[in-house]
Amino acid sequence: MGWISENVESIKSIQIRQILTQGVSLGMIVTSALIIWKALMCITGSESPVVVVLSGSMEPGFKRGDILFLHMSKDPIRAGEIVVFNVDGREIPIVHRVIKVHERQDTGDVEILTKGDNNYGDDRLLYAHGQLWLQRHHIMGRAVGFLPYVGWVTIIMTEKPIIKYILIGALGLLVITSKD
Amino acid sequence: MHSFGYRANALLTFAITILALICAIASFTDSFNHPTPFAQVKVLNINWFQKQPNGNDEVFVFLAAEYETKKNALNQISLWDGIIQSKEHAKFWTHTSNKYRFIDQVFVFLAAEYETKKNALNQISLWDGIIQSKEHAKFWTHTSNKYRFIDQGSNLRGKKFNLTMHWHVMPKTGKMLADKIVIPGYRLPEEYR
Predict the structure, then answer these.
(1) ipTM over 0.90
(2) Chain A residue nearest residue B118, CA to CA
(3) How do the domains of chain B map onto residue ranges?
């Protein structure tokens, strides 16, 4: 109980000036995170440079909770590459491997078919109704790098929102009560 | 100043920095690694040909794929040996045990590649496999095509095509590597039984 009353005391004793400083430093943290994210977007050319693998369809390569770094360049998409794509009518992007590519002679447009390494059949069942191929505009990026396990933080936070609120609350309290 | 929170924070930050550095170095050692595996593919038989209702040609092929080191060719080391090289490179900082594995898996696939009037490039995966250990890095398989070999149009009679053996190396963490061997000079028959 002594700990709580001590903290309450410290909150009470904060001067306006100190509150302002802390507000500014909090703002700095938030904006620098935003800057890093936007800079990554610029460098990689992908609208979401980092994605978390949510399903086991690419096992044993990518497991649930792994993080993928994406890159989107002008290079043509080729078979074997692991791409992240959006299908019309589906909110969550999918990470799967390209198994077929048809590139047009005149326009250079590509038609792509994908498949998860761990799935039995190709992805035509996942595509929008009647869609046989993915086009360039469906592709959000290709996976170039890989970091295991770290994505679990995100998965836990989206599936158990209470943990997220507790964490945010604790961090907020830490920011308010810390004296530097 | 020296509260538990501060110390935990400092420790966590330091640990993450070191981990990131180690991952970066591990990825960097890949650039010393130039695996040159050997692949040989025989088309044993073109089993079947059909024209789909929408006019696209489809063929069924029977393949024999070999992917390994040729013992008499000294300059050709197998893919996994190449990876062990990078493990050796990684040794100077890890003092690794035998359990340590740098590579998570190697994805090998065989694709037919050809050009048609309509398409500058057609790539069709015929077969693929996942290699998860050194013991399986050398293999020999007899197989019919795993994925359907369907053209966009009607070009599969007498068509010249290349078979390419691709391999994609997926490390435990870091940058993914890919390379391929092109095996040219295959041709689909003009006439099918």
Answers:
(1) no
(2) A105
(3) 4-187
